[in-house]
């Protein structure tokens, strides 16, 4: 299923960076392998039925109740199968319904991650010597993330061509040239201020 999904969506998959593609493949392979183990065998796509999906649902439910896996993690792995099947289903116009559609465990915690308190950032992360154990490059990335809210992958992908320290408003440009961005709004210019500006101003290429 993952291989066929990649073949169908080759143009979209080509936009992922090598690391994004590796993570995508590992997670989908885990989803498929776990499903095969749960039902006790491999199965042709056209033979998949709702009973197979229910077996998988019970498998993850038992693991969640035993505290072996988080509900949201189990749901993500089940959604992977729904996405793979749905794409193949639509491409080949299969006559069967997606057995994994809306398959999930109830009770998971959804929503945005809670932000660090400003006092914690100031007194712990920005305390004198707090980041001395990091090498200079890693330290600059942490300062950049603290001040701008960039994703770690976005901060690590910056280079001389996407860092602009000239002009009245220094900024970094987040692009999708090297990796697939999470959403259209992820491509953006982010102003540099405070410790982020100070950190990039001390970069070796300046």
Automatic annotation (TrEMBL):
UniProt GO BP: DNA integration; DNA recombination
Q: Which InterPro entries match?
A: DNA_brk_join_enz, Integrase-like_cat_sf, Integrase_catalytic
Listed Gene3D superfamilies: Intergrase catalytic core (1.10.443.10)
Show where the Tyr recombinase domain sits.
112-206
GO MF annotations in UniProt = DNA binding
Transmembrane segment boundaries? none
Which keywords accompany this UniProt record? DNA recombination
Instruction: List the protein's name.
Output: Site-specific recombinase, phage integrase family
Q: Give the source lineage, highest ranks first.
A: Bacteria, Pseudomonadati, Pseudomonadota, Alphaproteobacteria, Hyphomicrobiales
